[in-house]
Specification:
By secondary structure, this protein is mostly helical. Helix content is 58%, strand content 7%.
Length: 178
Amino acid sequence: MDFNKIGLKNIFKYSACIPKFFYLRFPRFKRMRREETVDHHIKTAWHAIARMYNQQAGKYDITTSIGFVLLNIHSEEGTPATKIAPLMGLEARSLSRMLKTMEEKKLIYREPDPVDKRSVRIFLTELGKKKKEVSRKTVLRFNDAVRQEIDIEKLAVFFEVLQNINQIIDRNNIYEKV
């Protein structure tokens, strides 16, 4: 196969029939195994964490998602419903069904905002406060376990790398160059 005729930009269409020597000559076109991709490691770690949290949450008749919502509601002053989704990195419509479920489970209740009557504040019930405390302790215990196993310097680098990845994504220009 003549790579000059097809052009390097079309190389991935024919990747199944590319000889191995090609990757030695053009290393930037090297096929990546999933273990070599950044997103694979982030995703598998998050899924493992979510499974662990869901196992714990299930013992208390909640889910990881409900636990995160509870953690983002101020225990005394409540939180405006419109502020919860952005705190969790969700769309507002994704949160609506969860808030309804949480209301049915008697974890939260809604009240009109005393300052802005158009807005609704979400408050924790006594049961919601207890489940929030369980969620808080679960998260803290996991973080303590990680900090006991991993040097603080390594964690600092890890946080810095994740922050850099988020900045790359926030610039929103990754695919404009393609």
